[in-house]
Task: structure prediction
Amino acid sequence: MARNTSLHKFPPLKDQHVLHDNRKALKIREREEALARIEEQRFAKKRALSAKAEARQAAEPASQIAANTVPVHPVAPPVRRARIKLRHRIVFLSFLLGVLGTNLAAAWYLWERAADRYVSVAGFSVRTEEISSAVELLGGVAELSGSGSSDEDILYKFIQSQELVRTVDDALDLRHLWSKADPEIDPIFSYAPPGAIEDLTDYWARMVTVYNDSSTGLIDLEVQAFDPQDAQNIARMVYDESSRMINRLSDIAREDATRHAREELETAVQRLKVARAEVTKFRNKNQIVSPDSTLQIQTGLLSSLEMQMAETLIDLDMLRQTSTERDPRTKQAERRREVIEARLRQERGKLGIGSASDTRDDRFADLVGEFESLSVDRQFAEQSYTAALAAYDAAVAESRRQTRYLAAHVSPTLAETSIYPNRPVTMGLIALFSFLIWSILVMVGYSLRDRR
Result:
């Protein structure tokens, strides 16, 4: 009815265009009236709800009203729609360049430019062969071969040393072998000649890998080259030089073990020569071979003279009892006694048994004492020589019993296919680390931005 009433307010128009404008204006007016009615209804509902709430609050106790009251917090305004900003574009561009670009460049280099490398593997250990003596073999006590950990550590350092690099380079020309991949095409994995020995040693550490197992004493060697035969030749050369080095260590150990014993033996020999020379000098000076024989003769002579003296005294006493002093036999006995006494004094003087006026240099006892002193020195020198000779022989025997050598349990192999570069694994590592580095840099950048 309202719509019909409003339609009759407009006068009829004969022009079709004017009629279309009027219809449009009529529709706009109807829409505005509908919106006004909706607003009036909404306002009426709000007033009714407010009245009900006021009535409910008036009916409830004050305490219950306070308990059921919910605090009203202010509502934040709605968040604006996210927009792509400059920093987002920079992060995306850095991802493209730092991660995708790096991986694409690495993949292109690995599959297009990197040369194949072949590997020769060798395994060896340092053994010590202990040869048992005949007594130990008869007694059933025999030592088996073993290895020393210090030898493996020395060998591990020797394979990585500049001395070995120079020796192998002089024999095989490492600069030529490791530059076969053309450094202009593969500058990362190939060697750029000529370079100094320090550069060659650094590249050696990349191409020659040594694994030392201290628990088992085994050493594994891995040599890389751009030709399988070159890799095998280098590995065989490393094994040969390591064997020579172990032999030199054995010679040094053997020389150290016998040097002290040899010095002691030389000292004992010199001491024995001096002692024997002194005894010879004494014999030549005194014109006697051994004072012991002369002493026995002199002792026997004294004993004989004393016996004769005793017999003469007995005869003289018997003559004195049976005859007078003028008896010629008594005078003869007296003469015999005097001669024997004189001879006894002379012989006793030779043995050092005489009056104090006799010189000691002429006494036979001094000669005997000097000879005994020289004999003691000679005996001590002989015993020292015997002990030193035994110690030297024992040291030589002990040094020969233990012989160190290099035993290969895996001979240098000849590769048929290339192992390096391991392109899938290398690409995976490059992708992982490039993404991690990019993520860390982005997080650092955003953390610095948030601190402003």
Remarks:
- The radius of gyration is 62 Å.
- The chain has a mean pLDDT of 78.
